[in-house]
Automatic annotation (TrEMBL):
SUPFAM superfamilies: Concanavalin A-like lectins/glucanases, P-loop containing nucleoside triphosphate hydrolases. PANTHER family: REGULATION OF ENOLASE PROTEIN 1. This is Uridine kinase. It comes from the Bacteria. It holds the Pfam family DUF1349.
Amino acid sequence: MINEKEKILNEDLYSLINKNIKENGKVIIGISGISLSGKTTFANRLKEFYESSYNVYLISLDENKDVFKESFKDKNPSKFYYENAYDFCNVKSEIEEACKCNDIIIVEGLLIFKNTVKINFDIKIWLDCTFTSSIQRSSEDKKELYEDYFMWLQRQHFSIDNPKSKADMIIKNDKVLENQPEVFVDLLNDTASVKKMKWLYEPSIWELRKNGVYVETDKITDFWQRTHYGFRNDNAHMLYMETEKDFIMTTKIKFDPVHQFDQCGLVVRIDEDNWLKTSIEYELGNAPKLGAVVTNLGYSDWSTEELNTQVNEAEFRISREGKDYKVEVNVLNRGWRQLRICHLHNEEKTVKCGIYCCSPINNGYKVLFTDIKIKEEYF
């Protein structure tokens, strides 16, 4: 059901529809959202509201015959469905025919805001709903289908088409979205919130200052497991909080490196054998490296990007969606750039997340985390 707050948004929508009808004689409305976001119910309510005054035609997308069944013969079922689910040429023809004798044409369904769909909607509406609520709304015998097949379908849609950005109006149809996301830590606006965090491998020298968290690293500290070098290190300085929720975590850092491999950044950790970190790492006379290390089942892998100049500050961001993580970096005021997308395989939902720094060679690396923010992100 659409709540009272959302009814106010709908009044704006009704005004927009009436404006289009007045100016153009008719209006074509597209309504989309993820599975079980309430598209069909909303479209029918809109039709009922207007059909006493206008001729209204509603198109609810029907998937191509046997496409769902056929998709499971493909090694990528959700991708197959994304590419083959609907015949949008037929939908476009149906719209053109409906325009001949109707004032309002409503089209509702999945994937209608794909980049390849060439339908000129006058108004695009996105019904916003979290994956969590979509799964909860499904029947018990179909929960696995919605938390796997349809979730991956829609995530591909988000990645390729960014459908929400195309919407003229986003209407929240999920009680979860009625609440503001929780802000766990916000150093800039609530210094005391950092006190929720605690140390894993506390450094000998550190303090909470007005302008940030200051750390001087101890020697021979690092996070690494087995791969390539053979050794195992699990003693980097990590200031963290614990959560089972999805989140966006950011930090800004100023640093004064001394020894090779001095590093600082963000980390997400389940245990010694399952974690990820992203950082900037000092390379003596060479320019520093940006990097991300992902460790699953006790084996680390390391992806890097070399900078072409020395820097003394950087900004990192990690976004969590279930077991999936997106790692981004901002250096030299280039704006946020993707550094890594990765997956932690461990089944544990609760993770430790926070800032880290370390010195694999010797002590004396000075680091100031001038901003730390960890905020709940709905998924």
